[in-house]
Specification:
Blueprint (H helix, E strand, L loop, with lengths): L1 H9 L7 H13 L4 H8 L3 H13 L3 E5 L7 E5 L1 H22 L4 H26 L29
Antiparallel strand pairs: 1-2
Helix pairs in contact: 2-5, 3-4
Length: 160
């Protein structure tokens, strides 16, 4: 997993690093938001997100403007350059995965997709549980293996 992460880092493109890629991806999904809301959506500290946003702004990837619902507040949003950069980074990441799996039999790719979908769902559930232990919907008797036969392709994995 760490090897894949290192490979992904080399394919991100100009002006973004792994920490800021996540923010660009989140902004693409949310549109203009306050830095505090972006931090909450990404489950990061506001000061960390603020630092990253400042760098993204210097690189012309995001812009601050008055918040659409509250003119007193500032919102950040992707610039056109930011959208293009994110699109290029997404394409590079997808191409990397395609290249890595090029010699794999289709059945193995399907198995990997199914297993990663289950893994990602359980990781997200665990992350939610750690953020709010009362929100856990997984009973102690639940086994991740029980999901393996019913897992389907998760659109969230498209940005991987």
């Amino acid at each position: 997993m760490m090897s894949i992460g290192r490979l992904m880092k080399t394919r991100l493109g100009d002006g973004i690093d792994p920490g800021t890629y996540h923010l660009l991806h989140a902004l693409h999904g949310t549109g203009a938001v306050r830095v505090t809301d972006l931090a909450a959506a990404c489950r990061l500290d506001t000061s960390t997100v603020s630092r990253h946003v400042a760098g993204l702004e210097r690189n012309g990837l995001v812009a601050r403007r008055p918040h659409p619902d509250d003119g007193r507040a500032q919102a950040v949003d992707l610039t056109e350059r930011g959208r293009r950069t994110l699109e290029q980074a997404n394409h590079a990441r997808k191409q990397l995965v395609t290249d890595l799996l090029a010699d794999w039999p289709a059945e193995d790719v399907a198995d990997l997709t199914r297993l990663l979908t289950v893994f990602a769902a359980h990781a997200e559930a665990k992350r939610s549980e750690l953020a709010d232990p009362r929100a856990s919907s997984t009973s102690p008797a639940h086994s991740p293996a029980s999901d393996l036969t019913t897992a389907s392709t998760d659109p969230e994995l498209e940005h991987v």
